[in-house]
Amino acid sequence: MLDSIGRNWLLLRGLTREAGHWGEFSAILQAGFPQARIHTLDLPGAGERHLETSPREINAIMRSVRLQALQRGLPSEPLTVVGLSLGGMVAWEWMLKHPQEICAAALINTSLASISPFFQRLRWQSYPDFFKLLLQADPYRKELAIIRCVANRRDADEKIALEWAKIQTERPVTLSNTFRQVIAAARYRPGDHRPAQPLLLLSGRGDRLVAPACSDAIQAKWQLHLRSHPWAGHDLTLDDADWTLKQLKDWVKQQSMRTGIS
Question: What is the pLDDT of residues 178-195, one digit of tens each?
Answer without folding.
Answer: 999 999 999 999 988 899
